[in-house]
Design brief:
The structure is a single chain. The chain is α/β, with parallel strands linked by helices. The chain has 2 domains: 2-44 and 101-207, Ribosomal protein L4/L1 (Ribosomal Protein L4, Chain: A), CATH 3.40.1370.10; 46-98, no CATH class. The protein has helices spanning 30-43, 105-121, 138-147, 163-169, 185-189, 198-207, and strands at 2-7, 13-19, 125-128, 154-158, 175-179, 193-197. Strands 2-1-3-6-4-5 form a 6-stranded mixed beta sheet. Helix 3 (138-147) crosses helix 4. The chain is elongated.
Length: 225
């Protein structure tokens, strides 16, 4: 069992939370986590990158100078690929590229739980007894994060109806918010810390909540680990 401290809204430890490794995969599987991370990253690619070949670049077809006698290299029109602003030698002209990857649902869910286990082992989960703001207060939210030891990027998992907390966090650098039901390996591995309410963490572990996603879902992304 892994014991994690539980903090109140003022950053004071009031309880502990026990995490059973068996419910989160038993052991950390680096290969599985990498596969899930690469999949999520690839699935975010639009595949819309296009470049122009020399026939699609605007410009004169006039030969810049005569072939011999100038001491310059043999030069053709300005649209050649060796000139600045010219066409690309092997241009990307496909109408669409699909970089999507897939994983079996059981593997995706295990990766989500395993990422949570990795955070728990490293003591990078900050459990708050209750995250409740009467109104959006960025300064108070920042103070709370500092009191529980957040010194790097963090992912804050909230209820869908916790609008004030989400608005309080959206202007903080390196702080992203996500619905706790949508926690996935990609977002957890993309941040150093995970901040979550005690009840939500318990529900995620016990009920196995995970959409099997990993295509993103966090908002206000501003930085890495």
């Amino acid at each position: 069992m892994i014991e994690l401290p539980v903090y109140d809204s003022k950053g004071k430890q009031v309880d502990t939370f026990s995490v059973d490794e068996a419910l989160l995969g038993g052991e950390i599987r680096p290969a599985l986590l990498k596969q899930a991370y690469v999949r999520a990253h690839a699935n975010q690619r639009q595949g819309s990158a296009r470049t122009r070949n020399r026939s699609r670049v605007e410009g004169s077809t006039r030969k810049l100078f005569k072939q011999k006698g100038t001491g310059n290299a043999r030069r053709g029109p300005v649209r050649t690929n060796v000139m600045k602003g010219g066409g690309v030698a092997f241009a990307k002209t496909r109408t669409g590229e699909d970089f999507r990857r897939d994983m079996p649902r059981k593997m995706r869910r295990l990766a989500n739980r395993n990422a949570l286990l990795a955070k728990a082992v490293d003591q990078e989960i900050k459990i708050i007894d209750k995250i409740d703001f009467k109104a959006p207060r960025t300064a108070e939210f920042k103070s709370l994060l500092e009191k529980v030891g957040i010194d790097r990027s963090c992912l804050v998992a909230l209820d869908s109806g916790n609008v004030n907390a989400r608005r309080s966090a959206r202007n903080l650098d390196g702080v992203d918010t996500i619905r706790w039901e949508q926690l996935n390996a990609f977002e957890m591995l993309n941040h150093r810390y995970l901040v979550i309410e005690k009840a939500n963490l318990k529900a995620f572990i016990e009920n196995g909540h995970c959409t099997g996603g990993g295509n993103g879902g966090a908002t206000t992304a501003k930085g890495g680990r």
